[in-house]
Design brief:
143 residues, 34% strand, four-stranded antiparallel sheet, mainly beta, elongated, 8% helix
Length: 143
């Protein structure tokens, strides 16, 4: 309900690791989880090492875009890097949201390197009971 499946996502992720970090013009993808919890959809992104100020969340119609940038740690001139495996650069993910979600009331929280978005289900999409009125106003048609 949140996004289309992409059979080549793992291949793209591997290619991004080989090619290098993402840039603002061509960001790399970041892993996420999406699930329903009660009357909300929850989307969680792993963004370790990213400061909250470097996270950008946008919603336009039913397209949710999350961008984040992990910048290099400031080092002094006498530091010589021996090994660098943690990815740096820009990460982005776009999700097509269903019309049944209330994009006006999205809540975002960032804790321990995990960005969690809670998207409530719109009232119009929730199941409801429809009562049947009594037929006391019967009219006969004669011809």
């Amino acid at each position: 309900m949140l996004m289309r499946t992409d059979p080549f996502r793992e291949l793209d992720r591997l290619a991004q690791q080989l090619i290098g970090p993402g840039t603002w013009s061509k960001p790399s993808a970041k892993a996420m989880d999406a699930y329903r919890e009660g009357d909300e959809y929850v989307v969680a992104f792993d963004l370790p090492g990213v400061s909250p100020e470097a996270i950008d969340i946008d919603v336009e119609r039913n397209m949710l875009t999350v961008k984040a940038e992990r910048r290099p740690v400031a080092k002094s001139d006498d530091v010589q890097m021996e090994l660098s495996e943690r990815p740096l650069g820009v990460f982005s993910r776009q999700i097509v949201l269903a019309d049944t979600l209330d994009t006006e009331r999205i809540k975002a929280a960032y804790d321990a390197g995990v960005l969690t978005l809670r998207i409530p289900i719109a009232e119009r999409a929730k199941p409801r009971k429809i009562s049947i009125g009594a037929g006391s106003d019967r009219k006969e048609i004669s011809g």
